[in-house]
Amino acid sequence: MEKFSDLQEKEVINICDGKRLGYVEDLEFEQQSGKICTLIVPMDCGKWNVFSKTRAYYVPWRCIKRIGDDIILVEVDTEQICRELSCR
């Protein structure tokens, strides 16, 4: 059993192109079952650009291929899973 804080320390890597997506910042759950359905990984768009919109990768749980000690391997098309972060 992993804790959320454990997932936040693991780097997410896309096995399709070897790209480092970043680190898990948040999760989306199915309300009825409580199961995790999406990992939210913010894109590194430069920390000093305050006028740009924050974007993130929304990685469906089904796209996770392996969770290791240090990394999470996913198989995704990064253009399809990229969208703006919702306001919190």
Description:
It is a single chain. It contains 2 helices and 8 strands; from the N terminus they run H-E-E-E-E-E-E-E-H-E. The chain is 10% helix and 41% strand. It has 88 residues and is mainly beta. The model has no long low-confidence stretch (mean pLDDT 85). A 4-stranded mixed beta sheet has the order 2-1-7-6, with no helix packed on it.
Describe this protein with a few key phrases.
41% strand; 4-stranded mixed β-sheet; 88 residues; mainly beta; 4-stranded antiparallel β-sheet
Task: Sketch the major β-sheet.
Answer: 4 strands, mixed
Number of extended strands: 8
Mean pLDDT, nearest integer? 85
Helix tally equals 2
Gyration radius, rounded? 13 Å
Distance between the termini: 27 Å
Structural class: mainly beta
Along the chain, the helix and strand elements come as: HEEEEEEEHE
| Overall 3D shape | globular
**Low-pLDDT residue spans:** none
Helix content: 10-25%
Strand order of the largest sheet: 2-1-7-6
Range of strand content: 35-45%
Set out the fold topology.
Blueprint: H1 4-8, E1 11-14, E2 20-23, E3 26-29, E4 36-42, E5 55-60, E6 64-67, E7 71-74, H2 78-81, E8 82-84
Parallel strand pairs: 1-7
Antiparallel strand pairs: 1-2, 3-4, 4-5, 5-8, 6-7
